[in-house]
């Protein structure tokens, strides 16, 4: 039936269920239910309630996945509840069911489509503090589209595009009107050509369309209402197909204060307040030859003076709720101070104001006790239709144009007609929404789920980090929150995220376990004078407890940039000098001494030559070829030895050639050793040497050494090329050094008269190199964002000038000093030609 339709997953509507999937190491982490909503296609899904609470449902949002819509209310460290809805017009099975959720014990094949059945698939993950059991889901839907004859231009009194022969044209506001719903049940509900529910075989002629359109328009009539859309009569709900049709029709008639009459197999519907009388008569028109009966009032057993009503309340999860009773103390006094209440169930009326309006009109109509049975002549026969209203003026009874509704009619053989009539009054249906409507009291009994805890008094401000001399050194952000003990129960920390205000990219995430401190300062990944957004969240001791992120608060960091205090050249220079001297001796003399020691060990023969080593083995290959003053030799020696808590392994390969005084050698040595103190040592050397008879010598050494042990650790790699003669040598070298002292920096050192970095693409025509030569760094092109430094003038009147202003006139950059310190020059300007990198110092105003 039309929206709102209430349907729970409990009972026969649960078609299939299964557990499946893993959550980490937890098996069967997901529980899936397939819930049939309607045995006919419906218009759509409007609301979802879980365990008695309405949840967020927006299928047009970004949470619509292959498993359906992820309910945001149940998201915590990822989705925990999915709902996927099918309106009954689907042509394929749900892929998640036959791909993931099915099992051998409980299969779901790709052929289980459910043609014509509107259903929902619910996937719930087993999560602590999320569900107390299997979730009970209630769906509020926009129900089946119905045929509305008042919207059909092909019938008398109708106007619109709907056609009974074309169900695709059905649907509209009539779906919510009890008159339209009753009409469709009387004609029978079908899926295609198959009957599903309702009356079967009732022809159109037996439902006079003009009468039904009048009833439909009476339901559709707009009245003043403070709580709804103003439609006079609406209804909707779940109709079970095993419910008797007459019971369903009675519930719909209750929703519109209606009556259904049948004469000769023809059904007419009358809704709401009585219509205009179709005929008038007087006492003279009544046949006195037939008996008459009159009931002026009801007996005590049939008397009522108040009414109770129950109805489904949407605000409380569609549970049945009692409406405020409609009481008449004045009538109770007349009935001997008795409160005589009638109980009415408005099962298909989920509208509080409409229920109260129906209760009032039902009581007032029930108080109209005057009932007559009379016989009228044949001329009244066409008007003797149950449900129609007639007007009676009676001197005998004191009636003046009094209205009566025909409750029943019996035809006589001579065409006389006997009618049962009861007094009616249109004023019984009057309603003042502003004064008579009593809004329902919210007595929700659904589960109370703790709301996510927000972080209170979250505040962000820019902050500057100072050094010991109170100099500004780094931009930072200070974050503050409420750290009162009452707000930190079950809280172990605070976490935050910092994002760039322009790109929304998160540049830093962090946390502190000292939530009680109430503030923290961060400087990681922050740029000066940059706009950021920062949000924070409390960290609970229970990981399943929900916490709410704060809003993104804007902040701009202070414009604190690097200065000359961030450059430590004096200390660097001394350290580099010391390293150069040490590394040079290490790769020259150290290489020579290490090779001599390896050669000595390789030539040892007797055990006593190995000193503390108790055992040894040696593999040796040696060749020598001599011809006068010409010699060529080759040595390959492998030696291993062990001693108390010590071991040695050495391989030496030595190639030498001599022609008179011209010599060339190539030596390769590998050595590993553990001494008695537990120090592990490793060394690799490749050394090349060439000397001419004129005294010129060239050497190339590559050496790697490292050690690790109780005394510490160290590692060094070096390469040197050296050549010269007659006491004049030139060398170039580089070194990688990891010192044994943790307080000393690691270094990559280059020793050369000229250091050049060039682009691979420019090798044929190097145009933009980086060159370091004679203590001067030269750049052909430089892109520099921030420059912090000083200009130093040498000679008489020299001084350091801090730069405070800058102007750009490509290809020149003009920088102004903060004070004039050179005698006679109060305003100094440094002009830099970025093409030639020439700096010119001048006075006065800058010129282009």
From TrEMBL:
What residues does the Tip attachment protein J domain cover?
245-394
UniProt keywords, alphabetically: Plasmid
A Pfam family that the UniProt record links to this protein: Phage-tail_3
Q: What InterPro entries is this protein classified in? A: J_dom (IPR032876)
User: Which stretches does the entry tag as region Disordered?
Assistant: 152-171
Q: What name is this protein filed under?
A: Phage tail fiber protein
């Amino acid at each position: 039936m039309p929206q709102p339709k209430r349907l729970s997953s409990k009972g026969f509507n649960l078609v299939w269920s299964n557990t499946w999937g893993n959550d980490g190491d937890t098996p069967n982490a997901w529980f899936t239910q397939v819930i049939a909503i309607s045995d006919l296609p419906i218009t759509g899904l409007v609301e979802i309630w879980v365990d008695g609470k309405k949840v967020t449902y927006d299928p047009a949002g970004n949470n619509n996945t292959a498993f359906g819509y992820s309910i945001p209310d149940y998201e915590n460290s990822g989705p925990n509840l999915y709902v996927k809805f099918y309106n009954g017009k689907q042509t394929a099975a749900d892929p998640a069911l036959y791909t993931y959720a099915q099992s051998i014990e409980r299969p779901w094949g790709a052929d289980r489509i459910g043609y014509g059945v509107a259903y929902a698939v619910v996937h719930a993950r087993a999560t602590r503090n999320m569900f107390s059991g299997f979730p009970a889901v209630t769906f509020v839907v926009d129900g089946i589209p119905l045929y509305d004859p008042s919207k059909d231009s092909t019938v008398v009194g109708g106007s619109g595009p709907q056609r009974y022969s074309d169900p695709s044209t059905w649907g509209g506001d009539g779906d919510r009107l009890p008159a339209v719903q009753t009409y469709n049940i009387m004609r029978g509900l079908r899926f295609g050509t198959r009957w599903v529910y309702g009356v079967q075989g009732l022809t159109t002629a037996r439902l006079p369309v003009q009468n039904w359109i009048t009833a439909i328009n009476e339901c559709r009539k707009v009245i003043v209402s403070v709580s709804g859309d103003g439609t006079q009569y609406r209804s909707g709900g779940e109709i079970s197909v095993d419910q008797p049709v007459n019971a369903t029709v009675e519930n719909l008639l209750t929703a519109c204060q209606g009556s259904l009459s049948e004469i000769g197999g023809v059904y007419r519907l009358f809704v709401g307040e009585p219509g205009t009388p179709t005929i008038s008569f007087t006492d003279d028109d009544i046949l006195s030859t037939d008996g008459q009966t009159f009931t002026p009032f009801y007996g005590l057993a049939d008397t009522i003076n108040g009414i109770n009503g129950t109805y489904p309340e949407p605000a409380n999860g569609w549970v049945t709720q009692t409406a405020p009773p409609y009481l008449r103390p004045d009538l109770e006094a007349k009935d001997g101070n008795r409160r005589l209440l009638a109980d009415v169930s408005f099962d298909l009326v989920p509208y509080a104001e409409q229920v109260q309006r129906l209760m009032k009109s039902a009581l007032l109509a029930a108080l109209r006790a005057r009932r007559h049975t009379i016989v009228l002549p044949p001329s009244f026969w066409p008007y003797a239709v149950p449900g129609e209203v007639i007007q009676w003026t009676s001197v005998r009874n004191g009636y003046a144009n009094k209205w009566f509704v025909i409750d029943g009619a019996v035809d006589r053989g001579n065409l006389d007609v006997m009618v049962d009539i009861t007094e009616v009054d249109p004023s019984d249906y009057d309603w003042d929404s502003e004064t008579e409507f009593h809004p329902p009291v919210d007595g929700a009994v659904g589960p109370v789920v703790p709301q996510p805890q927000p972080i209170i008094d979250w505040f962000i401000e820019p902050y500057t980090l100072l050094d010991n001399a109170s100099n500004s050194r780094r931009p930072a952000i200070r974050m503050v929150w409420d750290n009162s003990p009452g707000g930190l129960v079950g809280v172990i920390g605070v976490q935050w995220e910092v994002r760039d205000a322009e790109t929304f990219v998160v540049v830093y995430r962090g946390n502190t376990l000292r939530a009680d401190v109430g503030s923290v300062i961060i400087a990681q990944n922050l740029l000066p004078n940059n706009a950021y957004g920062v949000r924070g969240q409390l960290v609970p001791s229970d990981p399943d407890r929900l916490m709410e992120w704060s809003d993104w608060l804007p902040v701009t960091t202070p414009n604190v940039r690097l200065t000359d205090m961030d450059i430590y050249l004096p200390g660097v220079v001394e350290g580099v000098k010391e390293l150069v001297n040490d590394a040079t001796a290490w790769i020259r003399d150290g290489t020579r001494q290490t090779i001599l020691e390896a050669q000595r060990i390789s030539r040892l023969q007797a055990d006593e030559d190995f000193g503390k080593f108790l055992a040894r083995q040696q593999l040796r290959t040696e060749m020598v070829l001599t011809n006068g003053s010409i010699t060529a030799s080759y040595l390959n020696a492998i030696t291993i030895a062990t001693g108390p808590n010590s071991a040695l392994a050495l391989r030496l390969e030595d190639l030498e050639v001599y022609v008179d005084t011209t010599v060339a050698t190539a030596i390769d040595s590998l050595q590993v050793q553990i001494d008695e103190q537990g120090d592990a040592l490793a060394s690799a050397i490749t050394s090349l040497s060439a000397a001419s008879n004129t005294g010129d010598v060239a050497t190339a050494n590559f050496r790697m050494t490292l050690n690790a042990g109780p005394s510490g650790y160290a590692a060094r790699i070096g390469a040197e090329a050296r050549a010269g003669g007659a006491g004049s040598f030139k060398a170039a070298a580089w070194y990688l050094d990891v010192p044994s002292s943790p307080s000393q920096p690691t270094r990559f050192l280059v020793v050369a008269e000229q250091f050049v970095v060039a682009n691979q693409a420019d090798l044929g025509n190097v145009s933009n190199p980086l060159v370091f030569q004679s203590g001067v760094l030269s750049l052909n092109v430089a892109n520099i964002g921030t420059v912090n430094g000083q200009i130093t003038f040498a000679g008489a009147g020299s001084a350091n000038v801090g730069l405070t202003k800058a102007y750009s006139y490509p290809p020149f950059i003009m920088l102004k000093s903060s004070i004039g310190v050179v005698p006679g020059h109060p305003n100094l300007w440094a002009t830099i030609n970025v093409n030639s990198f020439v700096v010119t110092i001048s006075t006065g105003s800058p010129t282009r």
